[in-house]
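Input record (Table S2, row 793):
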Amino acid sequence: MSDEEVASSASEGEDLGRWADLFGLERPPEPEQDEPKKRRGFLSRMRESLAKPRQGLAPQLASMFSDRPVGPDDWDDLEDALIGADCGLETTEEIVNYLRSEAGAGRIVMGPDLAKALWKTVGERMSPEPPTITLDGAPTVIMVAGVNGSGKTTTIGKIAYRLSQLDQRVVIGAADTFRAAAIEQLQTWAERGDAELVRQAPGADPGAVAFDAVAAGKARGADVVLVDTAGRLQTEHNLMDELKKVAGVMGKVDPAAPHETLLVLDATTGQNGISQARLFGEAVPLSGVVLTKLDGAARGGIALAIRSQLGVPVVLAGTGERVEDLQPFDARAYAQAIFSPDDQ
Amino acid sequence: MFDALGDRLHGVFSGLSGRGKLSADDIDLAMREIRRALLEADVSLPVVKQVTNAISERAKGAEVLGSLKPEEQVVTIVNEELTRLMGETNVGLAMASKPPTIILAAGLQGSGKTTFCAKLARHLQKQGRAPLMVACDVQRPAAADQLEVLGRQIDAPVYRGDGKDPVKIASQGVKEAGKAGKDVVIVDTAGRTSVDEEMMAQLVDIRDAVDPTSVLLVLDAMTGQTAVDVASAFSDAVDFDGVVLTKLDGDARGGAALSVRAVTGAPIIFIGTGEKIDALEAFHPDRMASRILGRGDLQSLMEKAQETVEIEDPKDLQRRIKDGNLTLEDFLDQMRQVKKMGPISQLLGMVPGFKSATRGKDIQVDEDKLGRVEAIIQSMTPEERRRPDMINGSRRRRIAMGSGTSVQEVNQLLSQFKQMRKLMKQIGKGAIPAGLAEGLAGGQQLTHP
Ligand SMILES: Nc1nc2c(ncn2[C@@H]2O[C@H](COP(=O)(O)OP(=O)(O)O)[C@@H](O)[C@H]2O)c(=O)[nH]1
Ligand SMILES: Nc1nc2c(ncn2[C@@H]2O[C@H](COP(=O)(O)OP(=O)(O)O)[C@@H](O)[C@H]2O)c(=O)[nH]1
Ligand SMILES: [Mg+2]
Ligand SMILES: [Mg+2]
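Output record (guanosine-5'-diphosphate complex):
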């Protein structure tokens, strides 16, 4: 094996360990290696995907975080950096005011203090604890929801893949019966994730498919049932009602189902993300956000605003289109990756 | 959630007399509000700076005219600047002088490229053209299937080639179109992030292989600050000719429209307003400016109404409205017409001031309920529909039974109908109730008590 391959398989093992932690499952034995530093996998991946050239952000940060006293101009630059990352005005102002008061109290003096304090506060605001998804249902039902094209179907495939690696039996319900070829797409992802697919014909009642999937999962002794749903804009009242019905009908098999409802949010989303989280949350209680497409130019700061304003934390981060490109969210590493000048 | 810019500026200028030039301080305050409004609408930061500078220059020189409130004047300037930046008028899609016209759709993952390709094919079919779609997305599972399913819905052929090499599929697709006598080729491509060098290079190869008449960037209206990065990366790579802004049927303010235009100069040509194949519209800069500023879009609403609503004898209807003689039959008719125009919540969003009057509260229009109202009216005799006053207790019970609803619901409908008739009569007499938006919100209770 080349050095590169060793490094990647090592971080694979580390990744799977973190998935095990997420689900409260036993960690699989780790491949032998010398420096299994925690977070390394997530941070380096985030870095790798986020360290691409972006306009404006990095040079300002480099100067702001350099080893010199923090000056009055830095606050405007910091504000711009947060806004540029889609954190939104409200959350940006909260954070800048907080850091200013820290500086006023003498706790931030030099550039590196500012960097550390920013990462810390962003990390804590996003999620003080590592995320968990407890698998205590029989089976545990996880539903995904979100606007069109955010990455729901892909995310289902990626979650199934990790669960299967952790020896969990997974059934997937194809409750997006609306979008053209949505079922075929999910079929491929189910194969990649080594899961069984429960499907009906296009145009079928999504509630009926969801019901079937949960019932099948129960009958077959599955550990987890993942339910895909059609994309819908949060302002479409009828479609939001439909989503409620899909969730409700699963409750007929198991009153606790769906145990988890994940909002799949595209990291390129701007301020509309707040409206998405609010209105989806009103239709079906959300247990967390999956922040997808972090491998692109976007930094996904809207997820910070969502957590601050609505309390819904990010649990998973999507960083590509391959089956391995999804990780349990690490808020500190994320904060450090998105607010780092390239050479940090 | 969002205040219309005018409301905010009203606060800023409330102490002002409304005469003379605006002071530099006033303008600075106004600019702060404008900056906030633009950022909340997702206009990218560098573009916000550019726009506020331009606005500030104009505002400094402007006299505050006696007849106008200063906030109105500033809003007008802002509106004009945004409209100007987005290109003043609507730009159409360029067609090749010698067929085939080749359109290449590109963009990020999930932005709506495949859906757009089918919508465009449909749009061109309606103009008498014969499009062929080419499925060059070999990345996303079932992407070609998706295009094919959509193609079947509109009876447009799809070329899939070997499903492996997108560059080869593209060039063979063009040849195929020639053989089949198609005059438009629409090339669908895989989504790619703007920072993925390999995939961006592939896009360049596809473009070079087919030499398109137009390259279109398909961009999600919900895009945030990265719109500028994305637009400039795609512009550098393939120098796109126009933009398609999708998913504008939601409540996104769509500031990305401004960002993209400002950094690339490419016009926005189409907007996507739904998942259905017909949900494609021309782009209008002035309407988009209003939307970004949270001012609603009366123009689109009127157009939609004119397109879909057929009133048999408008004069007669107007007279009956004026006289307070509206019947339940008229009502049923109107309701069906409005329903044809699209989801009510979407229509209400186009009413200027509606969103700010309701303070972003989620006004829910229960379309199910509309169905029940329809059923109730259908269970009435023609006589009852014309003279709702004759509907007594036993008739109400019969109607409730017949429509599968309750007497309570029938009562509700009747009393609300009476209210509406009264309101209509007032409007008909020219006494527009204070606050059109409030009126509408009240009227809307007809379907959602
Ligand atoms: N680059 C990138 N693309 C993604 C990611 N997640 C999903 N996608 C892509 O986004 C597009 C839409 O994804 P899909 O799962 O179909 O979205 P859905 O409509 O919400 O089900 C597809 O092209 C996916 O390959 C991600 O984390 N990174
Ligand atoms: N509401 C709405 N949904 C849209 C619009 N355009 C596309 N979509 C949906 O967005 C999702 C992604 O579209 P798709 O064409 O597959 O995107 P692609 O990955 O760029 O090819 C699908 O669920 C589409 O139905 C639009 O204008 N409005
Ligand atoms: Mg899907
Ligand atoms: Mg596509």
